[in-house]
Amino acid sequence: MDEVDQTGIPWLTDSHRNFVAHLSTLTIQRQLDNPHPYDDVSDALGDLADAGEVLLRADDENVYVVIGGHVIVHAERDWLEYMTPVGERGQ
């Protein structure tokens, strides 16, 4: 994916990361054939992340969660900033 910067994610706060993780969990949970509890899906994503299988990438305008080479979540940075608590902005 050419538009994704592979060098890191400037200005992404813990609140942003937590919200993107939440969106990833919801996205995968809703796509499963058999319903799984939110916590189980979240734990499984955590295990995948620990194994280096979940990548968080960004460019100047977007943030992406990539699993197995596929974009699972795409969030515009402006929207992500808007959706996170005010106390976390700009940190």
Give a short summary of the structure.
The chain is an alpha+beta fold.
Furnish the topology, listing elements before pairings.
Elements: H1 14-31, H2 38-50, E1 54-58, E2 62-67, E3 70-76, H3 77-83
Antiparallel strand pairs: 1-2, 2-3
Helix pairs in contact: 1-2
Note the total helix count.
Answer: 3
Listing every helix as H and every strand as E from the N terminus to the C terminus, the arrangement reads HHEEEH
Residue windows where pLDDT falls under 50 for at least 5 positions: 1-7
- The structural domain count equals 1
**Mean pLDDT rating:** 85
Strand order of the largest sheet: 1-2-3
C-alpha end-to-end distance: 28 Å
Q: Give the biggest beta sheet.
A: 3 strands, antiparallel
* Beta fraction: 15-25%
Oligomer: single chain
Describe the structure.
The protein is 42% helix and 20% strand. It has 91 residues and is an alpha+beta fold. It has one domain. A three-stranded antiparallel sheet has the order 1-2-3. The longest helix has 18 residues, at 14-31.
Keywords:
disordered N terminus; 42% helix; 3 helices; 91 residues; alpha+beta; 20% strand
